[in-house]
Write a structure and sequence with these properties.
Blueprint (H helix, E strand, L loop, with lengths): L3 E5 L8 H5 L1 H14 L6 E5 L18
Antiparallel strand pairs: 1-2
């Protein structure tokens, strides 16, 4: 497995049943919070990381880095 950087962020939104039951609505709310943040504070890990059981979002075109 190639070396990677894993950045973990924590996003909190007010609880509603609608957000819990509809993933697309929760996705929009989370993106709104992230887009309005002046910067992202995150936990960083780097190296040859093993999978941690969570879904990872990845850059699909790493040649642009």
């Amino acid at each position: 497995m190639p070396k990677t950087i894993r950045a973990t962020i924590q996003v909190e939104v007010p609880y509603t049943n609608e957000l819990m039951n509809y993933g697309s609505k929760l996705d929009k709310e989370l993106r709104k919070v992230i887009d309005n943040a002046p910067y992202l504070n995150c936990k960083l890990e780097a190296g040859n990381l093993k999978p941690n059981g969570l879904l990872s979002l990845r850059n699909t075109d790493e040649t642009k880095l």
